[in-house]
Structures are given as C-alpha cells and as structure tokens.
Amino acid sequence: MSTQLMNTDVLVIGGGLAGERCAIEAAAAGHDVLILSLVPPRRSHSCAAQGGMQAALGNCVKAEGDNPGLHYLDTVRGSDWGADQEVAKIFADEAPIAVRELAHYGVPWTRVKGGRTSYFVKGERVEIEEKLENDGLIMHRDFGGTAKWRACYAGAGTGHAALYAIDSEVVRLGVTVRDRTEAVALIHEDGRCWGAVARCLRTGKHFAVLAKATVIATGGYGRVYGQYTTNATISEGTGAAIALATGVVPLGNMEAVQFHPTALSPSGILVTEGCRGDGGYLLDKNLHRFMVEAEPEKQELASRDVVSRHMGQRMRDGLGVESEYGPHLWLDVRHLGEKHLTTKLREVWEICRDFAGMNPAEELIPVRPTQHYSMGGVRVNKNGEAYNMAGLFAVGEAACWDMHGFNRLGGNSLAETIVSGRRVGRYIAGFTSSACLDVATTVVQDAVSNAEQRVTQLLANEGTGPSAYEIRDAMGEVMIGKVGIFRTESELAEGVSELQNLLQQCDQLVLKSRVPGMNPELSFALRLKGMLRLALVTAMGALARTESRGAHFRSDYPLRDDARWLNRTLVRWSGDEPVFSYEPVGVLDVEPGHRGYGSDERIEMEQSIDEYNQQVEQAQLEQGKIPAEDSR
Amino acid sequence: MSKHEAGRRLQFEIFRYNPQDPDSKPHMQSFEITEQPYMSLFMALNEIRETQDPSLQFDFACRSAICGSCGMMVNGRPNLGCRAQTSDLPDVINLHPLPVFKLVGDLSVDTGTWFREMVEKTEAWIHAKEAFDPGAQEQRMDDELAQKIYDSDRCIECGCCVASCGVANIKSEFAGPAGLNRMARFAMDPRDTRSDSDWFEVISNEQGVFGCIGMMACHDICPKELPLLEVYAYLRRKAFTSRMAD
Question: Active-site residue A260, yes or no?
C-alpha cells in the first residue's frame, strides 16, 4: 500500500492560541509551517476564554506598583509551590510584551478612562480617580489570587479577540492550515520525532506528515470528565494521548485538574471569574455570602481551587440550592447594573439569556464548580522540548511547562499560550534551521499502517460489546464522582479499577455505523482509548499523591506535605500499563510558605532549600529532560 | 420551558447526504425524541446520533455560542444549533445544512475554507506601519473606540449571515455580510494604516458594500447581534468620503 506523504519544516498540531503563536514565530523565521487542526483555527477552544489575560502593566490605580516580580510571586503561590519557579519567572517577565504585541496585532483591549470611575471592591462601591496621564493605556480588572488588578481584557471575549488577531497574523504570513484533520500518532524512532500520522476528518483517510520539528498544541483533556466540564467537545486530550502512546514521553502532574467555581448549572458553560473580579458575590441557598467568613482576606477572589472547595463544602453541608440536576449555588452580579453587564461582561449576559433563559441584571445565576483546566500535560523543559524525544515540543494547555503547578490562576493560561508560543516558537525556529529530515520510509509506513489497522480492527468487532458512547459516559461518571474536587483513597482506588475495566472494554467496543468517510462514531471511538489512558493516569496519580496541594485535595491527607511531595508526578505508558516516577519541581527561589488564602497548615520541608536545589538538575536529567541551553 | 408541556415528542426532519458514500443520495430522514428541560439542538442532535443513527454528521465545539461551528438552517432560518432551544421551536423541527458553503456531510459544512478565503481577499489583518517594538509602551487608544472595534470584532464567523444573504447565495465573489463587517472592523482601526484609496478599492464595488441590496436578513439573523445596519452605513460613508478626499 502506498503511503500519502506531506513534508514540512515545522508541524504544529492544534490551531489554538499557543499553536498559532508558535507557528507565527517559525514562519516569520522563514520555515515552512503546517498547522493541523480538528476545526477551523478560529473555532479552537481558546476562543471561549472570557475574562482576561494576566500581564503586570500596572496601568490603572488598583494596579499601581505592579510588576512582573509580583506576578511571578502570585503565580508561585497560586501553584501551591508546585510550579517550576524559573518558568514562572520567565513567563511573568514576558507577559507584558506578549500582551502589547497582541495590541499591535489588533486586539481591541479595554482601555483606561482617565477621571472618576466607579468600581465594586469586596462588596463595596468605591469611586476611584483614574489618572488622566494613563488614559488610553490597556485597562486591568481584578481576578482571583492576585495582589493587584492585572487581567487585561476585551469585554468578556478576550480569548476570541486574541485568537482572531493571532489567526489574522497566521493568514498574513501565509501559513498552511489543514482543518478537520486529526493527528492520531507520532512518527518516531530512537528518541527522535519525525512528524505525525494524520487522519482527515472529511474523508477518513490517513496520511503522514514528515517534519523536522513537531509541536503538540492540542489544549486540555477536560472531556475525560464527560459532560462535567466547561471545555469544548474537542478538548479530548488528543495530543497528550499520542505523546503518552510513544511509551517514552512522560506526562506531568496529570492529577492536577482545575475546577472552575462558576460554571452555569446545569449546562456547564463557563461564567468568567471576571464576574467576581468586577464585584460579583457567591450566595448559598439562604442568600448568605459565605466567602466573606471563609476567606476574610480574599473573599470571592481567593484562588479557584480554594473557592471551589468552599463551594463544594457548602453544598455538602446541605446549603446548596436543590435542583433536578443536583445542587448549585448562586452568583449575584445584579448590583453591577445592566450597562456594565451588557458591555464589560457582555458574553456572560448573553450566555445567561441564551442558555439559562434569565437576565443577570435582575436574577441570580445558578453556578457550580466544574472541571475547567488541565494543569498537567506533556512534560517539557523551559524551551518546550518534550522529555526523552528530540524534535517534539509542546505548548499551552497541552504542555506541562510548568508554570501552574497544582493550581493555575485565572487569566494565566491565556497569557501562557502567547508567552510560551512566542518563546518556544523562537527556539523551534533555531532548532529547525540546523535540523534535517532523516527518517527511514519503513518507520513512516509502519506508523501509517498501524493507524489504519486500528480502524480495521474496530470495524471488525461484532456482537454485543459496549458502544463508544456508553464507555465515554461511564468514564465521565467515574471521573467526576471519584476523581473530583474532594478525593479519598477508597474512592480513588475504586475509580482506578473501574477505569482499568473500561480501558479493557475499549478493545471490545462495537460500532453501529460502518459508513464510508469520516464516520463520526468511528472517529470518536478511535480517540476513546487515549482518553481512557489519560483518565486512568489522572486517577492513579491522584491515588498515589498522599497530600493536598492546590487543586489536588485529599480529604484523608488534607495537608500540603513539602517533606514528601514537593515534586512533580511523571507518567509513561509502558506495555499495557502506566509507570510513575517523580522529579523535583525545579529550583526553589521563593521558599515554600502560606499562599495568603486557603489553609495555612502544612508539613514543612526537611531538607534545606540549598540541599533541595542542588539535586534538581541531575534528578530531572535522569527523568529524560533534554538539557536546556538558555535561549537568551 | 413553560411554553410546552414537559416530555413533548419532537419530530426532527434532517437533511442527509454523505458525499464520501457512492450509495448515498440527498434525502430527508425523520427522527423522534422526547424533549428535556433546557434542551438545545446540541443536546438533541447528540441524542439522535448516540441512540438512533451514529452516522449523522454535524459540528459542535464550544456549545456556548462563541466558536461558531454549528450554524445550520433551523426551520428555514440560519441559527447556531447550540443556541437554538427546542422550547422555542414547534413540534416538527426541520434541519438543513447552511447554503453557500461546501457540504461536508449531512448538517456539516466547510465554513473554514470560505472564511480563510474571505480573510485573504479582504486582507483582514492590521496593516501596521512599523514592526512591533517589544521595548515600547502600547499605543494609546480611546476606550470608546476600543469598544466600537470590539463590537465589530465579536463576529464568530458562523456563516449564518452569509447563508441568509440573497446576494451571497447567488454571487460567490460578494464579500458577504461577515466580509463587509471585517472590512469595517479594520477600516475604523487607527492601527491599520491602509489609506482611504486603498479602502476604496476594497469597499466600493459590487463585491463590496455596493453589492448589498439591503434586504438585511443578516442583521435580523446574526446570533451575536452585530450592528450590521450601522456597519454598512459606515462603509458607504467611508466609500463616499474616500472618493471625496481624492
């Protein structure tokens, strides 16, 4: 059988913000770039980000004195010290440049209006005189877990505006995009990646893309939580799954899963943190504003993991509002007024109207914490290079770079997409210049025929086996029920064994449809095994980690344990099962301490900081880190 | 939900055609499901696919009216499938793919290719004067103007306006409502340095704003409620003033 081949210098898998920003950098350096995307790039899940992008410009009064150093500190505290601090610093330093560059590309950022302005801060209306000399600079809004107002925004459509600006640049540079195309396997040999096997979602045909550099930018894996996620239907972790399937590339911190406090109930559609940033409150069924006593300092604007836990506890205590879809709480933004809601929070106003049939200027919004973000992903060094695989890179939510550790701050992911895209893209441009394609055709043909064989096998299954959709639904129930906000050993152990069963069932699943072409049922079934592996390593990682850190909360081990668990989980797929190992989080600059919100009890480190730091590099190299030359 | 009794039986009449299947012929197929509270066409179509016919093709991604994937004809009007609530619809719901765009299969159409061509044709990107300077503070902009640009920038390229446009349906070279909106978005942006005469070439002809015959279905149909009436008025003024300036 002849294999259809395409050649490029740089293959970018995923057309969201991180992938496209990376593509721009490589294309501007003169390389041939090909983007594969499940959907037209402007429909990528980046477009759904609402409230803002963090960058310490310090332009409005409530942002005065802000600087990248404070942003870095907030990010490390937000991560519950799980982040690689060097990466968090690189990120915070470059975020202002990246945000200004987006202005250059055309993002209509909301601007500072000099003069008297009315805001809501901690439940009180305050009047602030914005400086006339700052009129017209990029405005900020408050977000959770930050010392200053820092989130730059365009209404509540920040992701949309950023994605359109970036994609315009991709078109301007003439970058080739193949939409409705899925990368189903990486082509690799002896620790070197040479591109990917792709499947066309128009025709169902496979082809190979050969590349000197391959970038995974496929976003998160929220859909392993079934319908209990704010994520788009396309956030199925396909990139992380094909990296895991290589057997050598590790995924990092897969158990670090963020639950966003305010998803609309029951649909799970995101309602931005900007609502609370702009002065919205959370209320229980008695209309009591419980976050004031739970977190006196930050109130509704503690980090997402902390707020979601307080909300979860409130509902466990019977103080949620009962509904036929389970309990929820209320988000109250009525006091912000219709003008504010229809401009600065316009997308929220529309979502409430279109998906809950209510007017947030007059009524309370039903919300509950829902899976939202994958801190974990393909483990990479600071230049974006995957462990154990030369020529393979990852950026954005698909990567574990790792600036978020165990909890990401709101607005930091949007900023990460652009900063990591820029930096890793620049590094790839250099890498690609000195690389040449050197792969045996048998390796390529084998990869393509393996992919085709999977299709043949699935189509051949007959009998009474489960459907792909039944397995998916069961996986979602296990994940939300047993690998959710509150985790315990017994539930996690049950979850692991149920997911193992479901993984075995994947091989027996029976398709009802055998139509030619892309066949939507087949397309989904082909992804399901990879999703189940991601779900399983998430649950196993959570079971193994006997402490509570950031979004990973073990009711049976409620303290952060810096003596045993100040490390990053790594997992590889070996044969039929995952193999876990651990590495230090990175060189510590900010000493582990209290985050400023949430519990201030913890188990202290036994080693000195110096002792810890001395072993970092060697321990990470042993795990397969590619030594990172400083890119500047 | 109060408009209808709970558990209403909904009858779907759905356009079917799989261009990849030589045996497939375009036809309508009926399905029945029971209405649920807060049911959107996203939920209804997934239920049909998962319980009745897994070969059914349609496109959804965000399911929150921001990605623009799921434009379709709902009882003859273009709408986003995720945003269309069954409680607003009668017992019989007819679904067709959007016209104008190339059919992928059943309700799925290729909007990606159409919009990329539109962006290329209208050069819908900022034509900057200088390269980006990483050391410089951002160029200032009045917030009112930023809001105005944002109002136009909110287009999600779902294609509903294009499908509803009498001209776009018969003249493939017409920029279409979404294309005209893109022109206006960049024409009003001071960061874009194209001159009045550059714009005149793009806007002031039959492919541009003078191709519009003013039926304004686009304005009524736009799921994001873009102010398209104002957009065209702006473009016509721009065409006039740019000629005057010559």
Answer: yes
Q: So what's the ipTM on this one?
A: 0.97
- What is the C-alpha to C-alpha distance for residues A291 and B152, in angstroms, rounded to an integer? 38
Residue tagged 């779907």 (tokens): B12
DSSP per position, A498-544: HHHHHHHHGGG---S---SSS-HHHHHHHHHHHHHHHHHHHHHHHHH
Q: Give yes or no for residue A243 having a pLDDT over 80.
A: yes
Task: Specify the long-range contacts of residues B203-206, CB closer than 8 Å, at least 24 apart.
Answer: B203/B235, B203/B238, B203/B239, B203/B242, B204/B239, B204/B242, B204/B243, B206/B171, B206/B173, B206/B174
Query: Quick one: pLDDT at residue B37?
Result: 86
The CA-atom distances, in angstroms, between A163 and each of A15, A528, B22, B123 are 9, 28, 38, 16
Alpha carbon of A45 to those of A283, A317, A382, B60: distances in Å? 29, 34, 24, 11
Cα separation of A250 and B193, whole Å?
47
Which residues of chain A make contact with B149, given a CB cutoff of 8 A?
108
pTM (two decimals): 0.97
Burial of A513 (0-12, 13-18, 19+ CB in 10 A): middle
pLDDT digits (tens, 9 = 90+) for B21-38: 999 999 999 999 999 988
Predicted confidence (pLDDT) per residue in B191-245, tens digit:
999 998 899 988 999 999 999 999 999 999 999 999 999 999 999 999 888 776 6
Interface test with A, best of B16, B130, B154, B189 (most A CBs within 10 A): B154
Question: Distance (Å, rounded) from C-alpha A502 to C-alpha A500?
Answer: 5
> pLDDT (tens digit, 9 = 90+) per residue, B91-119?
999 999 999 999 999 999 999 999 999 99
In A, minimum Cα distance to B53 occurs at A513
SS3 at position A38: coil
Residue of B nearest to A97 (CA): B134
Helix (H) or strand (E) holding A427: helix A412-433
According to the model, what pLDDT value does residue B244 have? 67
Is the Cβ of A139 closer than 8 Å to some Cβ of chain B?
A: yes
Task: Find, among A433, A490, A502, the residue nearest to A465 by Cα.
Answer: A502
Residue A174's contacts (CB-CB under 8 Å, 6 or more residues apart) are: A27
A322-327 CB contacts, 8 Å cutoff, 24+ apart? A322/A285, A323/A265, A323/A266, A323/A366, A324/B37, A325/A265, A325/A266, A326/A265, A326/A266, A326/A368, A327/A368
Residues with Cβ within 8 Å of residue B243, at least 6 apart in sequence:
B200, B204
Q: Which helix (H) or strand (E) holds A478?
A: helix A468-482
User: Count of alpha carbons within 13 Å of B83, Cβ hemisphere only?
Assistant: 24
